Amino acid sequence: MSDTEIESSELPDDAVDPEPQRNDVELSVDGLVKRFGGITAVDGASFEVESGAMTGLIGPNGAGKSTTFHCITGIHRPDAGTVRFQGRDITGIRPYECADYGLVRTFQIAREMANMTVLENLMLPAQNQLGEQLWRSVLPFARQEVEREERELLERVWEVLEFFEIEHIAEEKAGNLSGGQRKLLEMARALMIEPEMLLLDEPFAGVNPTLEHKLLDHIHELREEGYTFLIVEHDMDLIMENCERVIVMHQGSVLAEGAPETITSNEQVIEAYLGGEV
Ligand code: ADP
Ligand code: MG
């Protein structure tokens, strides 16, 4: 029996939690704090992300959205609070461990990779894992195994390329891609790790409207396959139209959380974030 079950069974009947039955929680952040010198970038943020849902994380510039992402995925170690993924406490995890658990954030294609082709870029994340087993390639039986894994890896790469409809740029150098194509590649790379949940920080920045729609279609398709998404995006309309749940951050903590309709009518949100424009 979990702690919460014990607690609720001790409550009198009329005090039973009136909240409607929630779907499974994929990610939960509780009392997260991150300071940089005198700045408290994240100041006690708490929220939950439902499994298989698309959740939007919004808030004005400097609200602490990116820092929250970095604390979740191990780029930063939080000063306080806990992060749970699929029920497991992953607070202060290392980024590579995070990927092993199936929680992945997209990141920009680094400058060193601009000279590599799209195909090579996609081979890289998984190849790093294979590379660790390099010693095995000196053993005859193990070498067969490594070759088999490499074949499977290449198959996976082509699957992902086809999914994003970017097979035609497989041999193109990453540095020659358009802004939008680069965004597709970034997401394709994340998928190579075979995650269960993706954190996207402004995935549509610098993407033209046509490609933005395409990218959104891909995200919806993946969502239907069961992937969970948490998306930071400044375009309110886009978030309201595409997300089932929205979390609003303001000055490092969560100001409001709920269905899009409840967010747009929330007085505090209108005042603090939208400046009364809605
Ligand atoms: P958002 O993504 O919501 O725009 P950030 O998480 O990037 O906000 O930033 C929140 C606050 O923390 C800002 O005041 C920002 O200047 C500060 N901050 C973020 N990262 C760092 C850092 N590495 N060092 C110092 N201050 C930082
Ligand atoms: Mg940011």
UniProtKB/TrEMBL annotation:
Keywords assigned: Amino-acid transport, ATP-binding, Nucleotide-binding, Transport
InterPro entries assigned to the protein according to its UniProt record, in alphabetical order: AAA+_ATPase, ABC_AA/LPS_Transport, ABC_transporter-like_ATP-bd, ABC_transporter-like_CS, BCA_ABC_TP_C, P-loop_NTPase
Acidic residues bias: start-end ranges: 1-17
Annotated segments matching region Disordered: 1-23
A Gene Ontology BP annotation from the UniProt entry: amino acid transport
One GO MF term: ATP hydrolysis activity
Record's GO cellular component terms: plasma membrane
Ranges for domain ABC transporter: 27-276
Organism superkingdom: Archaea
Pfam families, per the entry: ABC_tran, BCA_ABC_TP_C
CDD domains per the UniProt record, alphabetical: ABC_Mj1267_LivG_branched
Similarity section: Belongs to the ABC transporter superfamily.
Functional note: Probable component of a branched-chain amino-acid transport system.
Protein name (record): Probable branched-chain amino acid transport ATP-binding protein LivG
